[in-house]
Specification:
- The protein is α+β, with helices and mostly antiparallel strands and 304 residues long.
- The protein is built from 8 helices and 12 strands.
- It folds into 3 domains: 29-151, Ubiquitin-like (UB roll) (Roll); 152-242, Alpha-Beta Plaits (2-Layer Sandwich); 244-304, ADC-like domains (N-terminal domain of TfIIb, Single Sheet).
- It has a 5-stranded mixed sheet, with helices on both faces. A 3-stranded antiparallel sheet has the order 10-11-12.
- The longest helix has 17 residues, at 106-122.
- The protein is globular, with a radius of gyration of 24 Å.
């Protein structure tokens, strides 16, 4: 009998295999801790930051993002833990039963103030509204260390048509490195070069971005808290003094390029699209996009 005769008939449907069952998540114990005199219960494995959010306590963070692995480098989220010699980072320290935590003691406020003063005295924070808000909250003075304070001032790197790298604004939060690496894109185009005072964000061997592994997804822009990484159109508008977020509209829509269904936020000013971002809480993107979704909207502009 030939192979053609042995083949199953396309007219007879193949019975479906049983659908796989997703195993139920293992139950987690609840742990009770005390924060600022208030008792709260959180699931085992939660962080101190999770617990403070449950109580409605606003804990400052710069290097932390829900979709990225905590790297504990900015140290503005530190809290006082009873029995601990040092302040602990709320973003990564897991809760333990019976913990007694103070989030707004004088020791905590002093530590946060000094960290903010160090940052603001060494980098340009003009496009970091959240950092400047923290400075106001903790009465941090950028001028505290005088005009001779060491800075990371340097010319912006403009080597492509999509975005600008202005490392005079970089606070080394590592968010861009995490987003370019295993937490999102897995491209590894950028990393941390140097050690100690010489540590900085760079491409491999300091080569131009156009020669690197960068795929121009712009996810590093989406997570940067200071504007060190910025879309070129926004950068040029800010330089010309025409960037005005108060006059911009935001429209939630779906990226038109493929069937994945990425949610995008279209930022427009004076009837022109000036930026595209993605909500961090979107179930598909978690704030991430590809080059088409983030930058492929120029075809909609009027080029008369």
């Amino acid at each position: 009998m030939s192979e053609q005769l042995q083949a199953p008939s396309p007219l007879i449907p193949v019975p479906r295999a049983p659908a796989p069952e997703i195993p139920a998540a293992a139950a987690r114990d609840e742990l009770e801790i005390t924060i600022d005199g208030k008792r709260v219960k959180v699931c085992e494995g939660a962080t101190i930051l999770d617990a403070t959010k449950k109580l409605g306590i606003e804990t400052p963070t710069l290097c932390f993002l829900e979709t990225l692995t905590p790297v504990n480098v900015c140290r503005v989220c530190v809290v006082e833990l009873e029995g601990s010699r040092t302040l602990v980072p709320a973003c990564s320290r897991k809760v333990e039963a019976g913990m007694v935590i103070r989030t707004d003691s004088e020791r905590v406020r002093l530590s946060r103030r000094v960290v903010l003063e160090f940052l603001a005295s060494s980098v340009d924070v003009s496009t970091a509204p959240q950092l400047r808000a923290y400075m106001k909250r903790y009465k941090a003075r950028a001028e505290k260390f005088g005009p001779r304070a060491a800075t990371v001032a340097q010319p912006p790197k403009i080597d492509n048509e999509l975005y600008v790298r202005d490392y005079s604004k970089c606070i080394l939060c590592y968010k861009c490195v995490e987003a370019c690496g295993v937490d999102a894109q897995n491209t590894f185009a950028i990393g941390v070069a140097g050690r100690g005072f010489h540590a900085h964000i760079a491409t491999e061997f300091e080569i131009p971005l156009t020669n690197s592994a960068c795929v121009y997804c712009g996810n590093c822009i989406g997570v940067c808290p200071t504007g060190a990484l910025m879309g070129k159109i926004e950068y040029e508008m800010r330089a010309a003094g025409t960037w005005d977020e108060s006059r911009q509209t935001r429209t939630e829509t779906i990226c038109p390029y493929c069937g994945v269904g990425c949610g995008v936020t279209v930022h427009a000013q004076n009837g022109q699209i000036v930026k595209v971002s993605s909500p961090i809480d979107h179930s598909v993107t978690q704030g991430n996009l590809c080059i088409k979704g983030r930058f492929g909207w120029q075809f909609m502009q009027d080029h008369e």
